[in-house]
């Protein structure tokens, strides 16, 4: 079925690089076909009078786990695949309703979910995946407790598990190649201790340098990159020196390491909202006590990490890293970052910087001729009030993905 073209009239365009008023945008065949400062003639188009509202690119979240249907990731890993799939569908529908039209899953989602979205079996954001995150034994994706000696391989191919274990250079190469075979478009590794895992303190370094370099080489051979779970300054410096491009979290980074990131062209993906959500609700939602005890190790230092990264000139993408029922806080990251960073930089984190990290510069995260028609219309000025991007999409009368309306509460005319 051929969809009619859509013309947005009297809109303010805002994508982090553009801020223009009284603009007209025509969408056709799923793409932005024309942008003008004058009325666009198209007799067959559906016309939307924006009334001066703000037209933005669809938002991008670069750190999600769509299969994390509960806070206790160990329990989540052992759920039946069908339950996880239905839970993931609900999580992704919620993301789309908040205006997130693209997300990067950094551990858990499989290519079957990508296909389900493409075939229209479920609704959700465009899904960019790494497959299962790679972890060493006892690392951040090893969710077995100290008395659980079941074979880790039992969980490798379950939809609810976030990662897979690999030890030694050859095992790491095989795991990276296997995830790429299964449809991963980048590789994610766990290179530091974590909150959600039971046996590794935050400060623990994970994988040897030889293992890190081998995984980076496999990614580069496939013309892609490696993303790494990293908290401590020591772990970040080590991983960036080994060629890691995407630094997740970075809560405990120091200025010299931030400068190293800038020099090497690395991008940071902070996730401040998850620590606030875990602090307030983690225990009540089933986060194990060992994990609850580690939250403040990274939460308290989070705001300072943004200042350090900004001062060093490190690009920062938008990320949330939420689990289970806490996914509803996804948009609150805007407000948290806005207390520390200029609003326009926060918006760029979820538009142009995020698109660059994903490898889709000019395709998403912008309002430009030829880009995907992923668009949201916002009541008011997000530069003056980032909270307009929160509220479960209540301030977004229109959400469009690939030229199709996901939501449209404004009257249209022909």
TrEMBL record:
Pfam families: Amidohydro_1
This protein's name: Imidazolonepropionase
Domain Amidohydrolase-related: 54-393
Domain of life: Bacteria
InterPro entries with a match to the protein in the record: Amidohydro-rel, Metal-dep_hydrolase_composite, Metal_Hydrolase, Metallo-dep_Hydrolase, OTAase-like
A single MF term (Gene Ontology): hydrolase activity, acting on carbon-nitrogen (but not peptide) bonds
């Amino acid at each position: 079925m051929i969809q009619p073209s859509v013309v947005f009239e009297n809109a303010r365009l805002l994508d982090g690089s553009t801020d223009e008023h009284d603009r007209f945008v025509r969408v056709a065949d799923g793409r932005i076909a024309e942008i003008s400062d004058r009325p666009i003639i198209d007799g067959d188009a559906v016309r939307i009078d924006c009334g001066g509202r703000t037209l933005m690119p669809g938002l991008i979240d670069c750190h999600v786990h769509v299969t994390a249907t509960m806070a206790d990731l160990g329990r989540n890993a052992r759920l039946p695949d069908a339950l996880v799939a239905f839970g993931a569908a609900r999580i992704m529908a919620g993301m789309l309703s908040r205006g997130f039209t693209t997300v990067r899953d950094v551990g858990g989602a499989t290519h079957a979910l990508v296909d389900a979205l493409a075939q229209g079996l479920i609704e959700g954001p465009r899904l960019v995946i790494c497959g299962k995150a790679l972890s060493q034994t006892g690392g951040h994706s090893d969710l077995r407790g100290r008395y659980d000696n079941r074979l880790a391989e039992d969980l490798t191919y379950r939809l609810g598990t976030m990662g897979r274990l690999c030890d030694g250079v050859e095992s790491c190469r095989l795991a990276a190649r296997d995830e790429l075979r299964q449809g991963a478009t980048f590789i994610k590794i766990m290179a530091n201790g974590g909150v959600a895992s039971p046996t590794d303190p935050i400060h623990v370094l994970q994988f040897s340098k030889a293992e890190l370099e081998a995984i980076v080489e496999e990614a580069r051979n496939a013309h892609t990159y490696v993303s790494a779970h990293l908290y401590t300054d020591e772990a970040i410096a080590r991983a960036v020196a080994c060629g890691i491009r995407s630094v997740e979290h970075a809560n405990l980074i120091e200025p010299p390491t931030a400068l190293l990131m800038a020099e090497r062209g690395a991008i940071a993906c902070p996730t401040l909202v998850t620590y606030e959500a875990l602090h307030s609700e983690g225990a009540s939602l089933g986060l194990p006590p060992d994990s609850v005890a580690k939250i403040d190790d990274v939460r308290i230092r989070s705001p300072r990490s943004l200042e350090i990264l900004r001062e060093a000139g490190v690009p920062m993408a938008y990320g949330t890293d939420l689990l289970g029922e806490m996914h509803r806080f996804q948009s609150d990251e805007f407000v948290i970052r806005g207390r520390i960073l200029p609003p326009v930089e926060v918006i760029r984190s979820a538009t142009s910087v995020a698109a660059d990290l994903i490898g889709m510069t000019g395709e998403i995260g912008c309002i430009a001729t030829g880009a995907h028609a992923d668009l949201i219309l916002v009541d008011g000025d997000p530069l003056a009030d980032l909270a307009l991007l929160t509220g479960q999409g209540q301030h977004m009368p229109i959400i469009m993905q690939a030229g199709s309306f996901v939501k449209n509460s404004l009257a249209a005319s022909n």
